[in-house]
Structure formats: structure tokens, C-alpha cells
Amino acid sequence: MPAAPALPPERYVPVPFTLQTPGAEPFHPTDVAPELGDLTGIRGPLPGGHLEFTLPEPAQILVGFFPNSRRTPAASPPKDEWNPVLFNAKIAQPDLRDFSSMTVYAHELPAGRNDLDFGKGAYVVLGFVKQNTRLEPRMMASPGGRASLDWLFE
Fold first, then answer.
1. Measured CA angle at 82 (ends 31, 140), to 5 deg
2. Which end of the chain has fewer CB atoms surrounding its CB within 10 Å, N or C?
3. What residues does each domain of the chain span?
4. What residues have CB less than 8 Å from 60, skipping those under 6 apart?
5. Backbone angles phi, psi at 36, to 5 degrees
6. pTM score over 0.70
7. How large a percentage of the chain has pLDDT more than 70?
């Protein structure tokens, strides 16, 4: 018996932010994952870099870290407190299409001014969500592929 189709994840509730980093700009991530549809992300000078912003309340930041490309080194979360949320995620932003899939990580941040340093690798901030948001890790499907291994057991 075929498995029932999975319902799309609920959209995350965004937390607004004020950006202080020169050269970085807000954007709306498209075609990454349905739950990110209402978020505002930050794209900055690639590769890597320093990011400053202010949050009105405690939140979780969602950051996509890209693997090695011809132009940029691999990036990885700066600390152990980062939790993977989306694997094999892709982004449809024109200036980020040169990158293959990314892994999206979440990290809790306090209210007020925050200062993060992502080193020299390529990354993109996909947005900020309420601190109490339950983020279930999942694998994104490749175009034409399947998002899970359930098909092995059908």
C-alpha cells in the first residue's frame, strides 16, 4: 500500500531584524523549502564575512552553508551549538545559482545586537524564526528525486 503523501511543513513565523552590516542586503529566499516562504534573509559579500544585526526578541537564525565551489571555499557553522535543519537544500536566487546544494543550520540568538563571523566560506542567511519554533531536520528532494527513503520499504 503506498504511503500517504506528506503534508507540506507549516511556514515558520518570522522574526524581524535590523541589519547593520555595510554591503549586506535583505532578500526573500525563493524555492528553498515551503516553511521558509515568509522569511526575510540576508545576503552579503561572498565568501564569508562578518554580520551584524539587531533582533527585537530572542530568535533562531537559519543559515545555509555551501560546500566548496570553484570560486569559494567550503563554509561550516562556526560553533557546536548549530543544529542541522535542511539537507540538500537549493536556492533559486540568481546571484547564488553558482552554488550546489547547501545544508541549513539553526542557532539560537538573544534579543538585541548580534555579531556573527562566518569565516571565509560561502553562506546565506535564510531568515530568523521565533526561538520556540520546533525545527524538524529533513532531507530536501533533488529535482525529480524523493525527499525520503520511504520508497525503499514500499
1. 30
2. N
3. 26-138
4. 106, 107, 108, 109, 128, 129, 130, 131, 133, 135
5. -90, 0
6. yes
7. 69
